[in-house]
Amino acid sequence: MNKDTVRPNRSASQQLHPLIYLALVGAALAFALAAWTFADDSYTDYILAIVTGFALTAVGLPLILSRVGRTSADSKPRAHRSEPLREWMQGDFETWQDRVKGANAAVEILLPLSAIAIGMLAIGIVLHLTGHGGA
Q1: Contacts of 58 (CB under 8 A, 6+ apart)
Q2: What stretch of H or E contains 27?
Q3: How crowded is residue 68: how many other Cβ atoms within 10 Å of its Cβ?
């Protein structure tokens, strides 16, 4: 987007809304639970425990870092926390490259992990229905 086309009437945020982080955690938990549909023997359980740890770490570290960066002296994060999700999604989200609509940013952030979790669950269900799945 060109700087001349930036919409000045929309609020811009550099922080993700807390509900987006919550949705990411939910998608990671769904992925971890869906991965356990492949559980079969002790070796598979060991690998699934490692995959679950990686998934939760990949979501947990950014969540923790987002909380650490907020100081009590900074008033912007406090104002951001009180902003409703609807307003955040209608406003702009600033990335290091561009400004995008908040709703588009939320979809771009949540889509990959959610798609993997849904796909993993679908494959696990099919494996169990065909009798090739775990325990």
Answers
A1: 28
A2: helix 18-35
A3: 8
